[in-house]
């Protein structure tokens, strides 16, 4: 099991969305990840870096290069990336190609962390645990499952990730 700390890179996505009223569009606001980790009483050291606040459909090649660079240059060997689910697998492929030798786990949420009924806290916990025990590589932790980041796709109709 990992004894060193975990790096958490936040990029935005549904996990950090906030809706101000029923008629407004969402905004991606300050990450709720620190509050979730505090509430969970996480004892393992971690470092959180907010890279961007974007819906994953708005991520560019430059954004993905920034995520890869941050992961590659970090002293930590175990990394969790919070990310929007729509293009999570695209980023996983870039990370697998550009950041060898580290354990990287992408996770997100299908409903915002600020909602009472959210999958965010469970998914974050799964990702945090996976980062500690998984072999080097890129993984996706969603909905109680851990997937090889290069062998998974989002099934939009079913609202879940499935083996590709």
Task: Report on this structure.
The protein is of the alpha/beta class and 164 residues long. The protein is built from four helices and ten strands, in the order βββαβαβαβαββββ. It has a six-stranded mixed β-sheet with strand order 4-1-5-6-7-8, with helices on both faces. 38% of the residues are buried. The model has no long low-confidence stretch (mean pLDDT 86).
Secondary-structure-derived class: alpha/beta
Total E-strand runs: 10
> Which geometry do the CA atoms define?
globular
Strand order of the largest sheet: 4-1-5-6-7-8
Strand content: 25-35%
What is the succession of H and E elements?
Answer: EEEHEHEHEHEEEE
Note the quaternary state here.
Answer: single chain
Main pleated-sheet profile: 6 strands, mixed
Mean pLDDT: 86
Residue share in helix: 25-40%
Give the termini distance in whole angstroms: 28 Å
Uncertain ranges? none
What are the key terms here?
single chain, 164 residues, alpha/beta, 6-stranded mixed β-sheet, 4 helices, 10 strands, 27% helix, globular
């Amino acid at each position: 099991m990992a004894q060193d700390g975990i790096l958490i890179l936040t990029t935005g996505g549904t996990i950090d969305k906030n809706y101000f009223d029923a008629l407004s569009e969402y905004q991606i606001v300050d990450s709720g990840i620190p509050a979730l980790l505090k509430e969970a009483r996480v004892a393992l050291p971690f470092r959180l870096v907010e890279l961007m606040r974007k819906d994953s459909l708005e991520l560019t090649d430059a954004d993905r290069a920034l995520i890869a660079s941050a992961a590659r240059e970090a002293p930590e060997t175990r990394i969790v990336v919070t990310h929007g689910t729509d293009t999570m697998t695209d980023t996983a492929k870039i990370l697998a190609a550009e950041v060898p030798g580290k354990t990287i786990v992408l996770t997100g949420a299908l409903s915002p962390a600020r909602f009472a009924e959210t999958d965010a806290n469970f998914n974050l916990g799964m990702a945090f645990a996976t980062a500690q025990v998984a072999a080097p590589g890129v993984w996706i932790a969603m909905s109680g499952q851990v997937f090889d980041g290069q062998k998974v796709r989002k099934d939009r109709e079913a609202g879940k990730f499935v083996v590709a």
